[in-house]
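Troubleshooting: if your tokenizer reports a length mismatch, compare against these two reference records.
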Amino acid sequence: MSDPKSITDAEWREKLSPEQFHILREKGTERAFTGKYDKHYQEGEYFCGGCGAKLFASDAKYNSGCGWPAFTKPAEGDAVAEHRDESFGMVRTEVTCSNCDGHLGHVFPDGPAEAGGLRYCINSASLDFESDD
């Protein structure tokens, strides 16, 4: 893949499903409890559905009950970027893929205290999964 940050919307539309394009490129979200990775607990790694960059490991995933896949931390390094999001009359912290700027979801300070207190609430449609098996 060429530099993911230089790909045009037309090229992204060819590469992604309509739902993935809406979430990753237009900052959309999937309905709660509908994503394929919400209750998915197989061991492996989660990658960006847009560019394939490693984002999260299964050992950081937990059942938060929020309706979206939840992680306590991203993969090592600078896998994700965080940005202030003031959309919809709220102040939240948006999470994007550091490699392609694709929208992943949001991070909240209500995660398990013993794991650092963060909940990375991520759209399933923005992820791909590769099993350790």
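Reference record two:
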Amino acid sequence: MASSARCSTQPVPVHWVLIFRDRLGQRGVVLDSIYYSVGRSKDNHIRLYDPCVSRKHASLIRIPGSGPTAQGSLQYSYMVFDGSPGSRPSTNGLFVNGKRVLSHRLQLLDKIRFGPNVTAIVETTDRLSPETLAKLLQPLDAASSTSPSTFDFNKDTEPNPENLAQPEEEDYTVA
């Protein structure tokens, strides 16, 4: 008697991923929500750990695509905006691919810089190996990590960018 069980291969959804490098190291954030606030403050959706990052440094908003992306499976993208909605731009700027911007529609492999010391690379989940993605998504514990700076990231003051080391280059593996 032949088995009636069928192997169902459901496609795995593809999401945008931001791979950040800041004072606590490298980590990834899978983007699957409509809105993200990005900055040094504890109340951001994505918290960055560097004294040159503003409390409310940037915003990410999901926007519908006009057609398939390069991967053919993402029907949306994200816009990144300097500052937060209704506020002033960040103190140390938002840069995409080396150019200062107030807003930018993110594309695969864009390099975002949040002030002088924090970077992010735009990737997608289907381009990263499962091992790399798992490693990037491990949470960082800011309280137990040894940061090279004595700056108190919880203080409600703007940072002073003097004498800060530049971040190391990105190190990630694509599938």
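Descriptive notes for reference record two:
- The helical segments are 130-136.
- The first helix runs from residue 130 to 136.
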